[in-house]
Each structure stands twice: as C-alpha cells, then as structure tokens.
Amino acid sequence: MTITIGTRGSKLALWQAYYIEEKLKEAGAQVEIKIIHTKGDKILDRSLSKIGSKGVFTEELEDQLRSGEIDIAVHSAKDLQSSLDEDFEIIAFTEREEVNDVLVSHKELNMESSFTVGTSSTRRVAMLKAFYPHINIVDMRGNLQTRIGKMEAGDCDALLLAYAGVHRMGYHDKIKEKLPVKRFTPAVGQGSVAVESSVNLDKEKRELIIHACNHPLTEICLRAERSFLKEINGGCSIPVFGYCNWFDDYLLELNAGIVSLDGKKIIRVSTLLDDPEQLGIDTAKKLMDQGGKEILKEIRNQLNSAL
Ligand SMILES: NCc1[nH]cc(CCC(=O)O)c1CC(=O)O
Questions:
Q1: Does residue 162 line the site of ligand 1, with CB under 6 A?
Q2: Which biological processes are named by the entry's GO terms (predicted)?
Q3: Which atom of ligand 1 is nearest to the CA of 99?
C-alpha cells in the first residue's frame, strides 16, 4: 500500500511530513511525499490577517486531496481552520508536544527585561500587551529560519514561538524562558500534527493511518478545542486561546478565552465535561455570555477598518 502525503515546503512542514511518514512506514505502508506551495507561503509581504485568515495555508492542499493526487495532507493542527468543508475530515492527531510558547533569543534576556520581540500572531501581541506591557513589539513574518535570521540581523531582540516548532527545528539552545500555559495560554491545537483526508479516502488506507498516527487522548482534547474555535467562529486573526486537558476517567477540562487587541481586556473561562464537541460549544457560550461577545465584536470592527 502506498500513501501519498501532501505538505507545504517549509522546514517545519517537512519535519511534520517525515514524522508522519515514519509512523506510516512502521505500520507497513510505503510513502510518497509531495510538496505543495500555498498562498500563505507565496505572499510574504502582508500580514496574515490582511490576506484573509481562512485556508491560506490549506487551500492548495485540499484541492489535491479532492482530486486524489494526494491521500493525506499533513498540517500543524494549529494552522488548520476550525471548520472544514464536508468533503474533508481530520483522521488523526499525533500525540501533543509541550504546548507552551517560549521566548527565543540569541541574547541573555527574560520576560522581565526590556526588549523588542518580533511576532505576527495577534494572540501573542495581545497577550504581550496584557501581561508584559514593557516589551516592545514589531511585526515579523516568515518561517522559523527566516525569523531567526532577521532576529540575529538585528530586526528584533527576541521571538515568541511555539515550543513545538522551536524544538522540532533544533533551536532548543535559544530558548530563554518557557511561558506558563495558565497565563499565556496557547492557540487551539498548538503542538499536535493533524492528518487530513478526503471523506472518500480508501477505507483500508484510512484505518492504517489512524492506527499508525492517532493519539486518542490528544484527539479528544483537540476536538474540544476545535469545537470551541468553530463555535466562536474565530480564525487565526482573532486573539482567542484554548487548551484542553484530560483527567484519568476521560473527564476533560477546557481553558479558553479571548483578549482585546490592545490587551486591556481579557476574559477566561474553564469548563469540565466528558463530551469534547459539547465541551467546546459550552465553553464558547460561557465565554460569549461573560463579555466575550463584546470583545469579539470590537475586534472584528478593528480588523475590518484596518483592511
Ligand atoms: N503559525 C505558525 C506555526 N504553526 C505551527 C507552529 C509550531 C508548531 C505547532 O504548534 O504545532 C508554528 C510556529 C509558531 O507558532 O511558533
């Protein structure tokens, strides 16, 4: 059996594709990897919130899933929009890596120091303003290697990045501080790799892929987080966060919230339930009822007028 993986061409994307390839090979499959360039890879001179949040890194991959040119598309779970077209499904979430954001620098500094950080994530910008208002922020895009190059060239002193990507790309030695998830709560899906397929994928292939790649506890947590994000209807340009944990008896706890763009308002809720989809919906409703609705509306207006 040969399984064709479609992936973006960045080093992080390729790491993920090789990671899935290895798991599939261990399960006895043969694997081909096909690199696909997406809009998000091609447009580097505009911030992501201006290109439009939906599918900038996934559209071209989904075209090839639909046509059957590839069997699966491999993504960072975080980058995958919360609501997929009916023709597609996520059939596996790999075991989650540490979820924290980390401070990365070639200089000796920590979150109490005064410095300039480069980031293009609206969540990180808003949370920095909320919790670390003394830190200066500049917009910075590009893949991990590009950003580290820009940092070392002096465009900024530090970067705020997901531990998962930094670790996978071998920049562990530049981690200066790990931010606490209770406060600097990560984006929905951070740290896990998602395998997407067409709903028409061959059943035997589908079974093998799930068996080889899916981590059930990660899966239920990510289903809860993604259900939350879908209910909020927030793409990656809205500073929402969500992190789900499980207890022994499969009880789930979802911590989630929203931050205003200026960091002045932050609302955080936490809910316990055993059904992931419902947990996401309940948490989103609670957040909206407790003031999230107003913040979301304000953010939408600000983003629209910035375009
Ligand atoms: N948006 C880019 C992106 N997508 C996934 C990761 C890191 C790996 C992961 O969280 O799975 C990153 C880089 C970052 O946010 O620092």
A1: yes
A2: protoporphyrinogen IX biosynthetic process
A3: 10
- For ligand 1, mutation pick of 48, 79, 124, 178 (most atoms within 8 Å of CB): 79
Q: Is the pLDDT of residue 170 over 70?
A: yes
Compute the distance from residue 231 Cα to the ligand 1 centre, in Å.
22
Answer yes or no: 202 catalytic: no
User: Does any ligand 1 atom lie closer than 6 A to the CB of residue 124?
Assistant: no
Residue 186 within any structural domain of the chain:
no
> At 237, phi and psi to the nearest 5?
-90, -5
Give the count of domains, the chain: 3
**Which residue is closest in CA terms to ligand 1's atom 7?**
165
Alpha carbon separation from 304 to 110, 234, 258, 265, 299 (Å, rounded): 35, 14, 18, 20, 8
**What is the span of the domain harbouring residue 147?**
101-178
Residues 235 and 201 in one domain: no
pLDDT in tens, 286-300: 999 999 999 999 999
- pLDDT exceeds 80 at position 235: no
- HEC string of 23-65 equals HHHHCCCEEEEEECCCHHHHCCCCCHHHHCCCCCCCHHHHHHH
Q: Using 50, 70 and 90 to split pLDDT, how confident is the model at 52?
A: low
The answer to whether residues 114 and 170 belong to one domain is yes
Q: How far is the CA of 262 from the centre of ligand 1 (A)?
A: 23
Residue from 71, 79, 101, 282 carrying the catalytic annotation: 79
* pLDDT number for residue 233: 86
Distance 108 CA to ligand 1 centre (A): 23
CATH (domain of 262): 3.30.160.40
The 10 Å Cβ neighbour count of residue 178 is 13
Q: Is the pLDDT of residue 69 over 70?
A: yes
From the CB of 119, is ligand 1 less than 6 Å away?
no
